[in-house]
Design a protein that fits this description.
The protein is mainly alpha-helical. It has 6 helices and no strands. The mean pLDDT is 78.
Length: 168
């Protein structure tokens, strides 16, 4: 490896280190935020650690600026314990904003003593869960052939002449 390749490699490595550190810092900030701002909180570090099934030390190190010992397992456990199904919450600004908006709505409902809300989800787009496009094609083909057979059967039935109203 010549001097230029080594320098380029060092630049890439430094850039990755900076990106990783910035990511860990952002995750730590979001962990602290959700611990303090969750509608069921604020949680103490010990309280959230217990709720998530992790040690207080693990949570403290994940919340630290350097993100020591930060693992995906820790993030998933914390998110799950708080009712957050999208782990992208810790990494993606859009998911972070969306989930916080939903949690804020939940907080407002609770402050107004709303105990339950019936929500409907619109029908999923695309084929029903568990079916494939091929299965749907076969189903539609079967329906069409059944309809054609029914029409043929009806056409083969003898026609009954209807009374002519003009011959009274």
């Amino acid at each position: 490896m010549d001097h230029q390749e080594f320098a380029n490699s060092a630049d890439v490595s430094a850039g990755l280190d900076e990106t990783m550190q910035a990511t860990k810092t952002a995750i730590a900030r979001r962990l602290r935020y959700i611990r303090q701002q969750h509608p069921e909180g604020p949680f103490t570090m010990a309280g959230l650690a217990e709720r998530a099934g992790i040690s207080k030390r693990t949570l403290a190190s994940a919340e630290s600026v350097d993100g020591t010992n930060l693992t995906v397992e820790t993030l998933v456990k914390v998110a799950h314990s708080l009712g957050i199904s999208r782990v992208g919450y810790f990494l993606d600004d859009q998911v972070f904003d969306q989930v916080n908006s939903e949690l804020e709505w939940l907080k407002k409902m609770r402050s107004q003593r709303v105990e339950s809300v019936a929500l409907r989800q619109s029908a999923p787009v695309g084929p029903p869960a568990g079916s494939s496009l091929n299965e749907l094609s076969h189903l539609i083909t079967h329906l069409v052939s059944t309809a054609e057979a029914a029409r043929a059967t009806l056409e083969d039935l003898p026609r009954q002449d209807l009374p002519d109203d003009t011959q009274s």
